[in-house]
Amino acid sequence: MEIDFSKLLLNYPYFIAMIIFCLGCLCTLTQHNLLKKVIGLNIMQSGIFLFYIAVGNIKGGIAPIYDPTLPEGTLYINPLPSTLILTGIVVGFSVTAFALALIVKLYNYYGTIYAPKIIRMR
Amino acid sequence: MYLWENMPFFLVIGSLIAAFVMAGFARWKKEWCPYLTIISVGFSFILSSILAYRVAGGEIINYYAGGWNPPWGIEMMIDELGAMMLLLMTGSFLLIAIYSIKSIPREIPPSVSGWYYSCFLLTLSAMMGMVATNDFFNLFVMVEVTGIGACGLVAAKGEKLSTEAALRYLILSSIGATFLLFAIGFIYQITGNLNMSYVAAELVQIKDQYPVIIWVTISFITIGLGLKAALFPLHIWLPDAHSSAPSASSAILSGLVVKVYIVSIMRLYFLVFGLDVFTGTYMRYLILIMASLAILMGSFFAFVQVNLKRRLAYSTVAQIGYIFLGFGLGTVWGITAAMLHIIIHAFMKVCLFLSAGAIYYQTGKKKVTQFTGLGYQMPVTMGAFTIASLSMIGIPLFGGFISKYGLALGSLEANNPYFIALIVLSGLLNAAYYLPMIWQAFFVSQPKSQPKAKLKLDAIPFSMLVPIMITAAGVIYMGVFPGGALAFLEKAVSRFLLL
Predict the structure, then answer these.
(1) Is residue B327 a contact partner of residue B334, using CB atoms and an 8 Å limit?
(2) Count of domains in chain B?
(3) Total CB pairs under 8 A between chain A and B
(4) CB atoms near residue B424 (< 10 Å)
(5) Cβ B175–A91 below 8 Å, yes or no?
(6) What is the pLDDT of residues B84-97, one digit of tens each?
(7) Are residues A91 and B141, on separate chains, in Cβ contact within 8 Å?
(8) ipTM strictly over 0.90?
(9) Does a cis peptide bond (omega within 30 degrees of 0) precede residue B71?
């Protein structure tokens, strides 16, 4: 399969979003510190948020607030992905809060948040 | 009239509101929480019975939230599979809520017993939303809420092990949900819609245009929902989470929570992408391989476990494999068997986990090596346990036989008779780890030093005994009279395969 590199350069936000997503996934799966795992999760989600914002963006578009004084044919960006991401942020926030609460509890039990140590102490 | 028209909405939102109300009662009147939960779940059960009755009459219920028609608004659609799942979920939750009245105070600290019911209703509400929704983003939100609620159910026990298992479950299931969100982004980008029916109509036209994106999307969906449904190599969180949770939670998690993800994954594969894309991207073959591995390895791992609940949890991994195998075959009987197995396995696993909880309640025994003489101390519980175990093995007249028979027919339809050997082998493996427990409970005599055990009724409360008996009766009913469920699912299968 041929890859058109000029297209890749033109759509660089998608590329960056994918890199951030992969980095976050790697961080979550490979870090031993539980807090870093949660941070990785947040990085992963940020990658997706960037992706969604890039999906909704239109080159030269303005904020999607209707203004009758603007000339006919003005471009507005697509507001739907941004609103979806608002929900996504709230969901990510609640997951993070829950995970941190569990980590605090684990710290009370074991005195550490380093995963291999916890497994050894079990 | 108002209630009649907005029934799907009230079904989901009723439990959600009750969950938040319960959080208030958890501080004020903790002892009311179980009874209020039963009232709320009972209300949902009545509503979903009415919905199932309407769907059985040949009507597919489309509900537009707020009166906004698709593709702008959120659509809820209840088809035959959805109605079946709603009935199954609310019924099982009702039984488990009745069981929880006496069981939960023994297993979790009293300070959080009110919060437990909050998580209970939150999970039920999100699961019903996931089954009923026809909107991609709604699906994502419901998936996340179910994940959080299920983690709450695990963490409620407050022990070291369960906290650790809950954290692992939370992190892995959020990774899964994140993959799902990415897949939804891709779908939105290529089709411009979030409503599943519209996306399906759009995908038929453009699937040749974006082969790579569709391939990436379907693999992300498989990773995301497969991680949550504990498909074999992605099952690592399941044994810890399901075995360290309180018994009532284990029954919910093992019997129902993993199933709703499978229902979603089936809908996405067959109704949104269609069988052509499912086969064309080789995802069907991957599912078949993973399901076969799940059946074998799950049974092997279950065989070596000593802790009863851990053994049951690994057995769940194997049974999930059956369901994936069924719809991976992609034939009429295969999909029918997968749907039937969702129902039958829910009955069996709820029965087994509730029995395990009852055994722990009366005797404090957790290991399968301590079963000696148990059949005399608690004959009703062990009788139900035996029924569910025999069904797991696949003995005729029990529910498990019907779904295994369906799977065998499905693999013949797909010209793949090797899977019959797999099903028989797995049945033998199941027998190898279920039968010794039953044998030991009923037929092994106790050592001479102890007084001879006399047959007497179980010393557990009546409210714990009734759910166990009802689920065991359900297993037998499904084994003897499967015709009703089969006729109900026939239409769903024909819609799945576009027949």
Answers:
(1) yes
(2) 1
(3) 76
(4) 13
(5) no
(6) 999 999 999 999 99
(7) yes
(8) yes
(9) yes
